[in-house]
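Please go through this chain and its backbone structure tokens and walk me through the local backbone shapes. Keep your notes short.
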Amino acid sequence: MSNLIRLLGRRLIALPIMVFGVTLLVFIVMSFSSADPARLALGESASLQALENYREANGLNDPMLVRFARYLGGLVQFDLGESFTGVPISQMVAENFPKTLQLTFIGLAIAVVLALVLGVIAALYRDRWPDQLIRVISIASLATPSFWLALLMIQAFGNIPGGAGWFPAVVNWIPFTQDPAGYANTMFLPSLALAIPVAGSLIRVVRTAMVEELDRDYVRTAIGAGIPKPVVIARNVLRNALITPLTVLGLRVGYLMGGAVVIEMIFNIQGMGQLIFQGITRNDVNIVQGVTITVAIAFIVVNLIVDLLYVMVNPRIRSI
């Protein structure tokens, strides 16, 4: 337990350092934007004096380090600034980010289930027809862009002319607590489109890890001692084989969040994708900056959680 606490302590110490680095990088990049916040806030007809007064009042003329320190101080208080319309960015994020998180983690859950089932089957039937079939499926899934797959799913299963009409092509957000069945119906297509490319990569990783574990001496010894093979696989092989897939999974969370932004645009889900699109089309640097930092911090936190999952899956990691 003490090793687990030390591991957690090291990760928590590294967390604010990584958040600081990401925030600094995003702030510097967005500082080079050609958009003029004063012009966006006051309009094209504003006088030069009015523009200058706005810049002075909002600290836009201050040196970059001063502006960054002020932004960082606000970030600590969960203040991401305001859009040029005066709406707090933190309010926009609070309204939209939960939807993106739900889409991301439902897609992640589907990808994990598909990868575990198909990867284990491929390993148990290695070099036989189930393994070859699953290999073709995984390669095809990995090569399929999620946005293109989403469009194909809408054409095939969406409630549009020519589609099966099983699922909505345009999502009208329904909270899970209000209507679980309606929520599942609206989230199925976007989540599946997001999950399949990720599942394609995870299947191969799970299959490889399982094959390596099945060839170890302890598996042959346990089976030779009379322990049923399914018990050995469930209790030992699968648990040890999950270490490598977890590593890949932590990296894939960032891909899922980025893919969720695109999927939201296709299905008209009012999440972070719509928010960042609005920021880009309006040249609202504060919105783009706030959304980018929020997603980056979420990615860092998720990878911290994945690091701790390593310990839960394999206690040997605790000594690292």
